[in-house]
Amino acid sequence: MKTQPLILSKDQERRLIAGHCWIYSNEVNTKVTPLKDLQPGQPVAIRSDHDRWIGHGYANPHSLICARVVSRDPTQPLSPTLWLKRIHDALALRERLYARPFYRLIFGESDGMPGLVVDRYGDLLAVQITTAGMERVQGEILAALEQVLRPKAIVLRNDTSVREMEGLTQGVEVILGSPEDRLTLVENDLEFLVSPLTGQKTGWFFDQAENRTRLARYGVGRRVLDVCSYIGAWGLRAAALGAEQVVCVDSSLPALERVADNAARNRLAERVQGRHGDAFDVLRALREEDARFDTVLLDPPAFIKRRKDEKDGIAAYLRLNRLGMELLEPGGLLVTSSCSFHMGRDVFVRTVQQAARRAGRTLQLLETGQQGPDHPVHPAIPETAYLKTLFFRVLPEF
């Protein structure tokens, strides 16, 4: 597909020159370069209104983010050569960080490949494409991944609703090999059975791995509550650290069945039990039962997916954290997370503090975590810094 020019409106290049790569439709000079003349995924050469070079990228006239910068080198357009370089660069970082091949290999904008996520499970790659630009070069991307990593299996996990915003269909497709939907992943010397074809996201949440490792320094006590446990990553970590009783709460029965399988696999079955139900309902029921825990782990899905969800989402985080704190023993540990980009760290801290006041508790913030280094943050793109994990000591009110 031929590269077309894309000219910005006056004074719209500042954010891009600073390093961001998103271009919104109202930032384009549509009189000079009409968006309607572009095809979804069209490669574009982006310039300012006074002809300053910005970069090579791709466009989608049907999306609010109508273009993304991919290369700032005028001599390096979108091509198989560029994808090979970016994948090699991304792999070099992960190989410095991880002894085992279990991590996020490509994290979109932060790795110079906006619209692409690749998770690595040993010899299997789970690939997710979320933009028309990356969809157009899917074949080139997959060929480059095969060339660099020589995987035995590649799975396309294009079953995310984000694709709808780009006018793309959803689905799961095996591209290479005949993978089973059960493979073994190792984290902190614990083995987990994960499902790369049908599990949430791509089967695992690599972004919390560093935060789960941090649990060791604080001690988890005798009884631990893991809310929104999925397949038990947090809960089994707590059990391995010495907790005698771990209650894993999730709304998915298949996820809780996998918790039991993973607990047995790690010889922790006697310490781990599942409790099925809505997180808020189960927390209220535990409060009625006068249950108490030494550590409460809260890792819910994003309550604020869009800016317009902010008010209701903050209320949900407040309610969840209040209920969690009401179940803690004095001096207990609260580890609480938000993966909502639209909730900044300071707002999240204030929300948990408000929850503490309503629960009659006093907080001490011990540590703030973010996503691990296989999800690197691009300093010019705030949207790449989405995960907040807060470690609190929770005391009676004083």
Describe this structure in words.
Its main location: cytoplasm. InterPro entries: PUA-like_sf, PUA_sf, RlmI-like_PUA, SAM-dep_methyl-trfase, SAM-dependent_MTases_sf. By secondary structure, the chain is of the alpha/beta class. Helix content is 28%, strand content 30%. The protein has 3 domains: 68 residues, Archaeosine Trna-guanine Transglycosylase, Chain: A, domain 4 (Roll); 100 residues, Transcription Regulator spoIIAA; 213 residues, Vaccinia Virus protein VP39 (Rossmann fold, 3-Layer(aba) Sandwich). The chain is built from 10 helices and 19 strands. The strands form 4 sheets. It has a 7-stranded mixed β-sheet, sandwiched between helices. It has a 5-stranded mixed β-sheet with strand order 1-3-4-5-2. Helix 5 packs parallel to helix 6, helix 8 packs parallel to helix 9 and helix 9 crosses helix 10. The protein is globular.
Quaternary structure state of the chains depicted: single chain
- Largest beta sheet: what is the strand line-up? 15-14-13-16-17-19-18
Q: Proportion of β residues?
A: 25-35%
N/C terminus separation: 67 Å
- Secondary structure: number of strands: 19
Assign the CATH superfamily of the largest domain.
Vaccinia Virus protein VP39
Overall morphology: globular
- Indicate the radius of gyration in whole angstroms: 23 Å
Number of domains: 3
Can you tell me the CATH topology of the largest domain?
A: Rossmann fold
Largest sheet: 7 strands, mixed
Give the uncertain stretches in residue-range form: none
Family: Belongs to the methyltransferase superfamily. RlmI family.
Keywords: Cytoplasm, Methyltransferase, rRNA processing, S-adenosyl-L-methionine, Transferase
GO cellular component, one term: cytoplasm
InterPro entries: PUA-like_sf, PUA_sf, RlmI-like_PUA, SAM-dep_methyl-trfase, SAM-dependent_MTases_sf
